[in-house]
Amino acid sequence: MVNLVEAQKPLLHFLVRRAGLRQHTVDVDGAGTVITFWVPKDKPTVRDSAAEATTDKKPPLPPAPAKKNDRPAVVLVHGFAAEGIVTWQFQVGALAKHYDVYVPDLLYFGGSTSPSTDRSPGFQAECLAAALRKLGVGPCAVVGFSYGGMVSFKMAEAHPDLVRWLVVSGSVLAMTDSISEASLERIGVSSSAELLLPDSVKGLKALLSIATHRKLWFPDRLHRDYLEVMFTNRKERAELLEGLVVSNKDATVPVLPQKILLLWGENDNIFNIELAKTMKEQLGEKTMLQSISKAGHLVHLERPCVYNQRLKEFLASVTATENPNPKQ
Questions:
Q1: Which residues have CB under 8 Å from 68's CB, separation 6+?
Q2: CB crowding 216-236: b at 16 or more within 10 Å, else e
Q3: How far apart are CA 289 and CA 280, in angstroms?
Q4: Of the four listed, 148, 154, 202, 203, which is most buried by Cβ atoms within 10 Å?
Q5: For position 212, what pLDDT does the model report?
Q6: Using an 8 Å Cβ cutoff, are 280 and 289 in contact?
Q7: Mean pLDDT on 74-99
Q8: Strands 100-104 and 34-40, sheet pairing
Q9: Residue 248: which residues within 8 A CB-CB, separation 6 or more?
Q10: Is the dihedral angle over the CA atoms 177, 157, 326, 49 positive or is it negative?
Q11: How far is Cα 135 from Cα 113, in angstroms, rounded to an integer?
């Protein structure tokens, strides 16, 4: 029987290609760590440069510095329940008209993998930063959702030369003991894996119910097909969840130089708006918080038009100093 979720992928990929992106795989370390991406089709990639070097009998040149007429780069970092292009399917087309959009799959999502046993968000951040540098991405805006937000915070802290601006939705600086316990108690589950790694139609329905403001209905077959396609590498992903939690005494608030937008669903039941308000105070005056009404944790999917407009307004404002004529 045809998997309905898998069957929709060719259409989604067609639309993403129409928006100007193509698929590419980056060998991060030469030791088996690879990250799959959707990248701008008119930008040279690592493989392209290597092919040119072989033809010309010369070593590949380092990435050229950004030029004044280069479009700003935007990196979209997905959450835990889907790979990159599925998570950001409503944002890619809206952003690709005026920005160079990069959509990675984090390790153990999509085609990305690593032989390393490190499951921390810091390791994800280091691998993603290395891959972006190999792609020639210079100072960029990073948009992180949920788990991807935690990875994005780590990357912004460790690589401020790469991450110039940051947008985060439905996430926290770090998953501390207290935040984890309070969130799980509020939601009514015993562990993060129970919520984020469902193995049944009932479990997936519960996740969607918690993650959305509007109550959605899909046939059971679609839930089963989604579980089969999107929840692969279950062992590694369970280890990623274990690697998220840090003790309260070890948690620190980083000093981030970036301008930051916290773009939140007002009715987020996983990381509620009060957590976002606290985080804004912790991060300081360079951080803004905007909430979107009638939207839950999956704010970018529930209200994509409003989300995209807020996102584009922020990107236009922060990139205006480098591009005096930003477009919407």
A1: 322, 323
A2: eeeeeebbbbbbebbbeeeee
A3: 7
A4: 148
A5: 94
A6: yes
A7: 96
A8: antiparallel
A9: 176, 177, 178
A10: negative
A11: 18
Closest alpha carbon to 103 in 22, 39, 154: 39
Instruction: State the chain's maximal CA–CA distance in angstroms.
Output: 62
- Cut 0.85: pTM above it: yes
| In the block, residue with structure tokens 């070593």 | 59
- The pLDDT value recorded for residue 98 is 94
249 pLDDT higher than 90:
no
Query: Span 144-157, mean pLDDT?
Result: 97
| pLDDT over 70 percentage in the chain | 90
Q: What is the rounded CA–CA span in Å between residue 297 and residue 211?
A: 5
The DSSP bridge pattern shows strands 259-265 and 163-169 to be parallel
pLDDT at 65: 53
If you average pLDDT over residues 96-113, what whole number do you get?
Answer: 97
Calpha distance 253→284 (Å, rounded): 10
Calpha distance 130→30 (Å, rounded): 12
H helices, E strands: number in the chain? 14, 10
Q: Are 95 and 26 in contact (CB under 8 A)?
A: no
Q: What is the chain's Cα-based Rg?
A: 19
Residue linked to tokens 């493989």: 47
What interhelical angle do 4-18 and 220-230 show, nearest 10? Answer: 70
- Residue 266 contacts residue 291 (beta carbons within 8 Å): yes
User: What's the pLDDT at 69?
Assistant: 53
